[in-house]
Specification:
about 100 residues, about 30% strand, about 30% helix, alpha+beta, 4 strands, 3 helices
């Protein structure tokens, strides 16, 4: 399973990790510059928005999912500008997140 497939699986399941990781929280990750077509595809399961001259990636991620996104950012050689937990409380699992 590729990192992109794993990330898609985690975000589509509301971030609930089958290994028993913590439930999801909402994060905003800022990367430097704009994402090209490949970058947009790599992060397709996250909300992608311009953030000044940078790009904001927002989504509900558990700890493993967050680490996977950060690893993907590193592997694609994007510069990490910021990371914010927008919802420090746990995201309740609803049918929309499952």
């Amino acid at each position: 399973m590729t990192e992109i497939e794993y990330l898609a699986k985690m975000t589509n399941r509301g971030g609930q990790d089958p290994a028993g990781d913590m439930p999801a929280r909402r994060y905003q990750i800022i990367v430097s510059g704009r994402l090209g077509m490949f970058g947009c595809e790599a992060f397709r399961d996250l909300q992608i928005e311009p953030h000044g001259t940078d790009t904001a990636l927002t989504g509900d991620l558990n700890r493993s999912g967050l680490h996977d996104v950060l690893s993907l950012i590193r592997d694609l050689a994007f510069d990490l500008v910021g990371l914010t937990c927008l919802a420090p409380e746990l995201i309740a699992e609803t049918p929309a997140n499952l």
